[in-house]
Amino acid sequence: MLIFLVIGLIAGALASYIMGRQQDLLINLLIGIIGAVVGGLLAGLLGIAAYGLIGQIIIATLGAILCLWVWRRMR
């Protein structure tokens, strides 16, 4: 569980930086966790497997970027 939170925090921070939205630590954590879930689901549907910590961070970051992009379009 702790590793999942760390991956979420890193992914959220990276996604916020890439998308140009600097946010608080808690918001980055939430974005990263949601991104990890969304990214994991999409990767599973596409048949992409993430091996190791770096692979999980990449998938979670891509999912978080997608979530931020969708959020911007909805607002």
TrEMBL record:
Keywords: Cell membrane, Membrane, Transmembrane, Transmembrane helix
InterPro entries: Transgly_assoc
UniProt-annotated location(s): Cell membrane
Any Pfam family matching the protein: Transgly_assoc
Membrane topology designation: Multi-pass membrane protein
Signal peptide: none
Full protein name: Transglycosylase
Biological source species: Methyloceanibacter superfactus
